[in-house]
Amino acid sequence: MKKLRRSARLVDMTQHLLARPHKLMPLTFFADQYGAAKSSISEDLSIIKELFESEGVGLLKTVAGAAGGVKYIPLTNHEEARTGLKRLCQTLESSSRLLPGGYLYMADLLGDPEALSEIGKIFATVFAEAEADYVMTVETKGIPLAYATAHYLNVPVVIVRRYSKVTDGSVVSINYVSGSSKRIQTMSLARRSLPENSKVLIIDDFMKAGGTVRGMIDLLEEFKAEVVGVGVFMETANIEERLVDEYVSLLRVTEVDMRDKEIRLELGNYFKENE
Fold first, then answer.
1. Which residues are within 8 A (CB) of 210 and not within 5 positions of it... i.e. 6 or more apart?
2. What percent of the chain has pLDDT over 70?
3. Which residues of 56-89 are buried (b: 16+ CB within 10 A; e: fewer)?
4. What is the mean pLDDT of the chain?
5. pLDDT in tens, 97-141
6. Contacts of 133 (CB under 8 A, 6+ apart)
7. Residue 95: how many other CB atoms lie within 10 Å
8. In what residue span(s) does the Bacterial purine repressor N-terminal domain sit (predicted)?
């Protein structure tokens, strides 16, 4: 039990909440932690709640009842998300990022903690009400995005492999059709990594026709899991046939000109739907 002045208590309580998003924290926890009355804790939480909302940090949701408490829900407001992603667009439109075959170099971005945190919080905002039990992605480039999102949702990450490993134990494997190349490929998931009937949020870095995401959806059927959302960081525009109907994209590639070394991006369908 800590005996702290109110200012120090507010800082410590804020740290507890930020470190445990989407977790219900009973008022008795804080009361016992600081040796304070519940009424004092309630007043402190009102101050933190007002600060979170005014600064755009997120919401502090109160749950009534004997088993109730408070829950921090990280949220990024729409304009802040738009501004941040437009800034990323400018970075990614550099001609130096174009690779042979029309691919876009993003490894540095997917290794930048600040950028990942920003993207992960946006995805967590989009799917805040999905009540996902797990975040799923396929190796390898989607892994940082999945972990960034899972951090703000406070749920585990499940990684689908292209090739199974002996350390995975028993696995479930399926064949799927790559949407762009039309090639038959394989993906697998360890049986122990995902309980049946779980609610799963799929996060991926890039989507063309959606073959990989479609494969993950089909794989989840083998686990009797429910897909509660699909989020992709970037999608390609002007695809004749998309294998996934419902998904949220943050950015969209609208033009790739290999001859003139030009690439054009715009905000994804998340912003189109919310305009």
1. 179, 242, 243, 244, 247
2. 96
3. ebbebeeeeeeeebbbbbbbbeeeebbebbeebb
4. 92
5. 998 877 889 999 999 999 999 999 999 999 999 999 999 999 989
6. 155, 156, 198, 199, 200
7. 10
8. 5-74
Pairing of the two strands 157-160 and 134-138:
parallel
Round to whole Å and give the CA distance between 139 and 185.
14
Task: Look at residues 207, 44, 203 and name the one whose alpha carbon lies nearest to residue 123.
Answer: 203
Count the residues in the chain: 275
Contact 89, 251 (CB under 8 A): yes
pLDDT, tens digit, 9 for 90 and up, residues 9-56: 999 999 999 999 999 999 999 999 998 998 999 999 999 999 999 999
Return the bridge partners of 199, or none: 226
CA gap 215, 101 in Å, rounded? 23
More confident residue, 45 or 275: 45
